[in-house]
Design brief:
alpha+beta; binds cobalt (II) ion; 8-stranded mixed β-sheet; 3 helices; 143 residues; binds carboxymethyldethia coenzyme *A
Length: 143
C-alpha cells in the first residue's frame, strides 16, 4: 500500500525564518515552496539533498496563512510553540489505499482527496486513527 515516508511536517510561526536556519545551520536545501490557501499554509519542502529522489523523505516546514488555518489553531493550542505536526506517507494509488483503509475502519478526513504540495492528491487520517498522530496520504501526479 505504502511507498515511503514522504515528509515529516514542522509547524512554526515563521517558515522563512525556519528555512534560513535549516540552510545556514544544517546546510539543507529548499526543494519547493508554495502557498496552499485551501490548507491555510505556506509550506517549504526541505532536504539534505538538492533534488528529490525515489524514497527520499523531506521536512515540510509550514506556517499558517491566517488565523482560521488548522495550523494556526494547532499553534495556539501549543502556546505558539513550534513542533512536529504530522507525517505523510507516499502512496502510489490514493484511491485504492483510501478504500482499503476505510474497509479496515480507518477514519479519513475528506471524502475525496484534495490538492496538496506540488499538485499531489492528499488526504489525512484522523489522529485517533493514527494512534495519536496526524497522518497524511500523498500521491504524486502520474506522468
Ligand atoms: N497531531 C496529533 N493530534 C492532533 C493534531 C495533530 N496535528 N491536531 C489535533 N489533534 C488532536 C487534538 O489533540 C485533539 O485530541 P483530543 O480530542 O484527544 O483532545 C483532537 O485531535 C481534536 O483537536 P482539535 O484541536 O479540536 O482540532 P480539530 O478537530 O479542529 O482539527 C484536524 C484536527 C486533524 C481535524 C485538523 O487539524 C485537520 O483538518 N488537519 C488536516 C489538514 C492539515 O493539517 N493541513 C495542514 C497541512 C497541509 C499539508 O501537509 O500539505
Ligand atoms: Co504535509
Amino acid at each position: 500500500l505504502f511507498i515511503c515516508i514522504d515528509h515529516v511536517a514542522y509547524a512554526c510561526p515563521d517558515a522563512d525564518e525556519a528555512s534560513k536556519y535549516y540552510q545556514e545551520t544544517f546546510g539543507w536545501h529548499e526543494l519547493h515552496r508554495e502557498e496552499n490557501p485551501e490548507q491555510g499554509v505556506v509550506e517549504i519542502m526541505m532536504a539534505p539533498a538538492a533534488k528529490l529522489t525515489e524514497h527520499m523523505t523531506q521536512v515540510q516546514v509550514m506556517a499558517p496563512l491566517n488565523d482560521e488555518s488548522t495550523v494556526a489553531k494547532w499553534l495556539a493550542k501549543h502556546n505558539g510553540r513550534a513542533g512536529l505536526h504530522h507525517m505523510a506517507w507516499r502512496v502510489d494509488d490514493i484511491d485504492a489505499v483510501s478504500a482499503t483503509l476505510r474497509e479496515r475502519g480507518v477514519q479519513l478526513l475528506y471524502d475525496e482527496p484534495k490538492l496538496g504540495t506540488g499538485g499531489n492528491r492528499i488526504n489525512f487520517m484522523h489522529p485517533k486513527s493514527g494512534k495519536g498522530v496526524l497522518i497524511e496520504l500523498t500521491q504524486y501526479p502520474k506522468n
